[in-house]
Amino acid sequence: MRKFLVVLDDSRECLNAMRFAAMRAAKSGGGVEVLSIIPPEEFNHWIGIGDIMREEARERIEVHYEVFAKWMRDRQGIDPELVIREGEAVTEILAQIEEDKEVGLLVLGASSDKKGPGPLIAQLMKSVANFPIPITIVPGEMSKERLEAIT
Fold it and tell me: Of 6, 124, 130, 133, which residue has the fewest beta carbons closer than 10 angstroms?
């Protein structure tokens, strides 16, 4: 089974990436793996406080994930997997792709902000020529109807 890897973060454009991944997986018989990455700078505190903050970050991610997972199960018949990693975003995405050989496509949402598509896409574009799998970038402003039409 081919999995669509989609990154869960707090961006608005993440919603369209989730939709696209779920719709493509449903129509192609694939699966969805949702990756959330906790940046290391969130825990640069005393050990006890860092552990509490790490646990709170994981709980926040799980709640956020459940909203998308419910929609995927109810509307698309897809039961996604959640993976939480800690570290630098690009490094952790590459590590996840390396560890899970069923991942066949990375799906990211692009911001419509005038500053650019977003920091993650900007970082990935520097190494896209050597990336191990294809990347699909979904416009953050694309309508639900248009997403349905192209998937």
Answer: 130
Which of 118-127 are b and which e, b meaning 16 or more Cβ less than 10 Å from the residue's Cβ? Answer: bebbeebeee
Which stretches of 1-137 are DSSP H helices? Answer: 14-28, 47-71, 89-99, 119-125
User: At 33, phi and psi to the nearest 5?
Assistant: -115, 120
With a CB cutoff of 8 Å and minimum separation 6, the contacts of 38 are: 54, 57, 58, 61, 84, 85, 86, 87
pTM of this structure: 0.91
Tell me the pLDDT tens digit for each residue of 132-151. Answer: 999 999 999 999 999 999 98
Q: How far apart are CA 76 and CA 118, in angstroms?
A: 27
Q: Closest by alpha carbon to 34, among 56, 63, 75, 74?
A: 63
94: Cα separation from own chain's centroid:
12
Phi, psi angle pair for 134, to nearest 5°: -65, 155
